[in-house]
Design a protein that fits this description.
- This protein has 713 residues and is of the alpha+beta class.
- The protein folds into five domains: 2-128, Roll (Ubiquitin-like (UB roll)), CATH 3.10.20.310; 134-220, Ubiquitin-like (UB roll) (Roll), CATH 3.10.20; 226-297, Ubiquitin-like (UB roll) (Roll), CATH 3.10.20; 300-383; 410-709, membrane protein fhac: a member of the omp85/tpsb transporter family (Porin, Beta Barrel).
- The protein contains twelve helices and 27 strands.
- The strands form five sheets. Strands 10-11-12-13-14-15-16-17-18-19-20-23-24-25-26-27 form a 16-stranded antiparallel β-sheet, with no helix packed on it. A three-stranded mixed β-sheet has the order 1-3-2, covered by helices on one side. It has a three-stranded mixed β-sheet with strand order 4-6-5, with helices on one face.
Length: 713
């Protein structure tokens, strides 16, 4: 430690900087601010410099936290102490950043100004990058003792692309990171092509007067080798043959570093495998190579569960029991139960669902790239659409392409028994509103049926990349899907449903993130779902209402409650006492539409008082749900509800290991009449023939409250 401090002190004597000894400091002196004065053009971003220095200045959050430290859960921030030695080290770190970026002559200085009364110092770093050291030429050659590199005909195209990547370094500052990355790519090129013993090193020649550098990457490919043995170690319950089938190489294949990485990724995806390591054991460099696969197995059985909350559905819980290696060949068996209780929900008609399922998964289905899942299930739901029970079987062919990339082909067959429809107060125009309510109360709409069958094929995919799946700041995710019903005889309705969702994240500075979301969908009824001449389009629409598009809710347009943006009607009730008939309604139920577009723009910010685990967000959402197909035009006027709607609001986030807990308040910017008036008032006014525009509008109905756990993508 003494030698290190002496070295820093001696270096400091030679640096062109204002000395910290010119001001008197003690152990309690704090840093008030740190500023950078950089040359025009900024060869190195200021954010890179702030990332390497150790001394820190208090932020705006620190100041607010200190003022409100007397409040519960608000901690007073730690003081930002000043250290003269650390200041010298920070100056060296800054110079190293410039040197590594290709600016070895950078002139870095600092100035320290002290506020004697408050015992604080303000630090200013002034940096002039100076002229860069420019890469003049990049070459790739064999080592001196070897003949020229031999590149096969099949590899020449990739070799030219690699050399082109090297030429991109020419004319630019000699950044060490870029040069090292190119050297790694050269070595990987040969290790991908049967040369496991490839050795590379970089030689640099510098003309200091011209400030130019010539780079030569020297390559010794070593012997060309094929796989001789695949040694599988560490297996206990799973068979070695099961591990071997997940590997993209076998005995006799040319060695490939890429195939080794892919084999590790494929093996690691098996539920029974906790950790997979694939490497080359010590061996002579020869024309053959042994590849070692070391496996660490997970526990055979696993019991797990989740507990969550969403404002549209209340408390939710899921319990799972899994067997990870049912037959010694990594086949999995999972029994799960899900309860979406509706308890403590913030909406009038929460989504209640109870589901039980058994999933049998086979990880290798004719190919190591595909797995097959079979899931019989039964589900009871009580929501804004109906109260019903559904049971059936799903068969899913799944291909995982990466952590956030997959393709799935699912065939599902099911039957839904409906005990009670909740389609609100709907009219065809052929009968008056009161007659329709009477028919609803008398269950006269038998044409809807109570046993709905569905047989459909769904192709869906997820692709994208996020820096952190639980709290993303950079990246994007794309989720398209298309579902089509078939065959005709096994379906109560026939349709094609297309849905696409896109999520994107981009950092705006060190602590601010821009999050965007766009979703669009279209329902195409065909066959028996299209009204024939003389058939009631309202009834046909209600038959496909279960798959119609809706908008609004926690992860959608947050100014509205779950699925209540767009066409909706009061959830009507009728009671008859003698000769008197009375009408009432308890909230609204969504009608939905054949088309939907919605989107969101959100700024995610730190919370000014509660520390790094807390955040805040500001958002603007918009959406539209409508039906443009003239075959499904009904008699009740919903034109005002099929336009674009927008909402805005703000919220608070609490970071957790499974994602943020998010509380949001949304505000309707352009609500419809139905959004502002009480459903009971609306149903009575229609029954009495009163103009709905004269009803009392409640300003409180402009607000919607949402609570959820997770990133929302």
């Amino acid at each position: 430690m003494r030698i290190e401090r002496l070295a820093v002190f001696l270096i400091a004597l030679t640096l062109p900087a204002a000395s910290a000894a010119q001001v008197r400091v003690d152990a309690t002196t704090e840093v008030s601010s740190i500023e950078f004065r950089l040359e025009p053009g900024r060869a190195v971003p200021e954010s890179d410099l702030r990332a390497v220095i150790v001394l820190k200045a208090p932020s705006n959050t620190d100041a607010l936290s200190r003022w409100f430290a007397w409040l519960p859960f608000v901690e007073s921030p730690e003081p930002r102490l000043f250290s003269p030695i650390e200041l010298q080290r920070d100056l060296i770190r800054i110079r190293n950043v410039y040197t590594n970026s290709g600016y070895p002559e950078a002139d870095a200085r600092y100035e320290v100004v002290k506020d004697e009364r408050r015992n604080r110092v303000a630090i200013t770093f002034r940096v002039n990058a100076g002229p860069p050291l420019v890469v003049r030429q990049v070459t790739v050659t064999a080592t001196d003792s070897l003949p020229p590199l031999e590149i096969g005909e099949k590899e020449k195209r990739d070799w030219k692309r690699l050399l082109a990547a090297g030429r991109q370094l020419e004319g630019a500052p000699a950044a060490r990171g870029g040069i090292a990355s190119f050297e790694q790519r050269v070595g990987a090129f040969f290790r991908q092509r049967a040369h496991p013993w490839t050795v590379t090193h970089t030689e640099a020649r510098v003309d200091s007067t011209k400030r130019e550098m010539w780079i030569a990457v020297r390559v010794n490919p070593g012997a060309e080798a094929r796989v001789d043995q695949v040694l599988i170690e560490g297996t206990t319950s799973v068979t070695p043959a099961t591990i071997a089938r997940e590997l993209p190489f076998k005995t006799g294949d040319p060695y490939s570093e890429g195939a080794v990485a892919e084999g590790k990724r494929e093996t690691q995806q098996l539920d029974i495998v906790r950790l997979a390591v694939i490497d080359l054991p010590p061996q002579p460099q020869d024309s053959t190579v042994d590849v070692r696969v070391r496996i660490s197995e997970s526990d055979l059985r696993l019991v797990s569960g989740d507990l969550g909350y969403v404002s549209d559905a209340g408390l939710m819980t899921e319990a799972r029991w899994s067997h990870r290696n049912l037959n010694g060949r990594a086949t999995t068996l999972t029994v799960s139960a899900v309860a979406q209780t509706g308890w403590l929900a913030l909406v009038e008609q929460p989504d209640r669902r109870y589901r039980g399922s058994v999933t049998l998964g086979r990880p290798y289905f004719f190919s190591r790239s595909w797995s097959l899942l079979g899931t019989p299930f039964i589900e009871y739901r009580d929501d804004q659409q109906d109260r019903s029970t559904q049971y059936g079987v799903d068969l899913t062919l799944l291909r995982r392409l990466g952590p956030l990339s997959s393709v799935a082909l699912k065939y599902g067959i099911s039957r839904r028994d409906v005990y009670q429809y909740r389609f609100g107060d709907f009219t065809t125009g052929d009968v008056d509103f009161l007659t329709f309510l009477q028919q609803q109360a008398q269950a006269a709409l038998d044409s809807l049926g109570t046993g709905l069958r569905r047989s459909s094929l769904t192709l869906s995919s997820t692709t994208g990349r996020l820096d952190d799946p639980t709290r993303p700041r950079r990246g994007r995710v794309l989720r398209p899907s298309i579902e089509v019903t078939l065959p005709q005889t096994w379906n109560s309705t026939e349709f094609t449903r297309v849905d696409v969702g896109v999520w994107a994240y981009a950092p705006l500075g060190r602590t601010v993130t821009l999050a965007t979301r766009i979703g669009a969908g279209r329902l195409f009824p065909f066959g028996k779902s299209v009204p024939a001449p003389g058939e009631d389009p309202a009834v046909k629409f209600l038959q496909i209402k279960d798959v119609a598009f809706t908008a609004g809710g926690t992860n959608d347009v947050r100014g509205w409650s779950n699925r209540l943006l767009g066409p909706k009607f009061p959830d009507a009730r009728m009671s008859v006492a003698g000769a008197e008939t009375t009408f009432s309604a308890d909230g609204y139920v969504p009608l939905g539409g054949l088309e939907r577009v919605s989107g969101s723009l959100e700024i995610q910010l730190p919370f000014p008082l509660l520390g790094s685990n807390f955040g805040s967000h500001l958002f603007v959402d918009g959406g539209r749900v409508w039906t443009s197909d003239s075959d499904f035009k009904h008699g009740f006027d919903v034109e005002d509800q099929e336009r674009w709607f927008f909402g805005s609001g703000a919220g608070v986030d609490l970071g957790t290991p499974v994602g943020p807990i998010r509380f949001s308040i949304g505000y309707k910017l352009n609500p419809s009449i139905e959004d502002l008036v009480d459903s009971d008032d609306l149903i009575r006014s229609i029954a009495d023939g009163q103009d709905v525009n004269t009803l009392k509008k409640h300003k409180s109905r402009r607000f919607a409250y949402h609570l959820s756990i997770g990133a929302g993508w």
